[in-house]
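@channel sequence for tomorrow's demo:
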Amino acid sequence: MASMPHTGADPVASALAAPPLEATRLPELPEIVVEGGPGRVSRAGLRELWDFRELVTAFAARQVLVKYKQAFVGLGWSVVQPVASAIIFSIFLGRFAHLGGEGLPYVLFVLAGMTSWTFFSGALGNSMESCVRDAVLLRKVFFPREILPLAAVLASLVDFAPTLLTLVVVSAVKGIYPAWTLLAVPLPLVILVATALALGLAASALNVYYRDVRYVLPFLVQIGLFATPVVFSLSLVPPRWRLAYQTLNPVATAIDDMRRAVVHHTWPAPLPNALALVWVLVLLVLGYLLFKRLERGFADRV
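structure tokens (generated this afternoon):
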């Protein structure tokens, strides 16, 4: 067997004497620091919300898919509640209590009110639970937190469409066919969305700190059902208080608008709507201010 030539050099010593290899330098990554905001509304925060606008649509679509996943009836559930409520109220309040329906069949009168109220109460409830429901995202992912209650309200619009269609169909069955006044439906819808968002922003922030909110809010919504002209006519409110009532309770204005547009074929009254929109804008600003004030502690509280 041939032997390797002996060079006389120790390989271990040669390796130790060799200059060290230069370490491979990794590219430096930019350091991203997320700091808590000042706890108030700012232009940067509003610009940031606009930059994340596509995330609003994504969250709203996700909520709709999760809600109706493996549901046999699907969107039909959004119709069952207002229709069933209208039938029950028409039996106990229309037939036994003899409440008037502004010259309409009482079941149709109540259904017109429940169409708006069901959307408002559902949107408010979903918005209130939004931050606690997505607690994992709040702790791990950065995005404008107000996207969660906003997406919850927008997701409820999917339920409003079949409910409104049901109201139009029931009205046609009762002999009241669609008219051009249906073009006014976006006005009460804007009032309902803005009111639900204003109250939802405040409720969702408070719900992070005080979980009693999830028990108190449904109780208040139930009281609001009978404090709002859902099962009674707006004409029962004394005329001297009616304008103030419609202003401070924008949902009352929206319900009256819906009845006017769909079943009465008249246009909404300009002054109550103008005052209601101003008041809703005030509520929206106040709700947003409270939300931004409390959002800095969300990650530690959820």
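heads up for whoever presents: The chain has a mean pLDDT of 84.
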